[in-house]
């Protein structure tokens, strides 16, 4: 690129391995992302981002000193400030993982997750327990994230996980909220157990367990 639009921001903590993993997840949910794995030692992450409606790709580079550079062609000038704001929100959400790991809700979710790991999907009753515990873990995680936007006890304690997800999705424009479909799917499985005493198939328990672990790691 000859005359390049560019901006640079500092995001302390972004070079942490967990933050980079979350950054990849968030960027790939908001853009079509192509990561460049052939980078010099002073760069820890580099990718090309595309989005419907953008005339050209946008480039992002994360340096080992936690600086982040966003650059693109002059053809994107009319959208550049909006794209930079979207990417900056994603970067800040990616590093929230560092400050959110030790809250009461997250620690409780971690303990339930670890306890659940001993249950076998081969046993019919334990499959039902797995789905129930997965739902509790995910509700705790969603509630913790929701608490960043409201402190009202009735919102945090009385609203269903579906309502909380809906409100969070409005806050996170152009950004995937973990895996909201999986969270809703697991709530549906839990409702089948809790309200109808239904049994859970092995693949359903596997799905609930693996998705819950993935979402927890991205928190």
Structure, explained:
- This protein is α+β, with helices and mostly antiparallel strands and 219 residues long.
- The protein folds into 2 domains: 5-99, TATA-Binding Protein (2-Layer Sandwich), CATH 3.30.310.10; 104-218.
- The chain is 57% helix and 14% strand.
- The chain has a 5-stranded antiparallel sheet, covered by helices on one side.
- A hairpin with a 7-residue loop joins β3 (43-50) and β4.
- The longest helix is centred in the middle third of the chain and has 23 residues, at 77-99.
- The radius of gyration is 20 Å and the shape is elongated.
Straight-line N-to-C gap: 36 Å
Give the SSE order as H and E letters.
EHEEEEHHHHHHH
Give the rounded overall mean pLDDT. 87
Sheet with the most strands, sense and barrel status: 5 strands, antiparallel
Tell me the radius of gyration.
Answer: 20 Å
Oligomeric form of this entry? single chain
Number of domains: 2
Going across the biggest sheet, name each strand in turn.
1-5-4-3-2
Could you tell me the strand content as a percent range?
A: 5-15%
DSSP, total strands = 5
Structure class:
alpha+beta
Number of helical elements: 8
| Low-confidence runs of at least 5 consecutive residues | none
Q: Roughly how much helix do the residues carry, as a percent range?
A: 55-70%
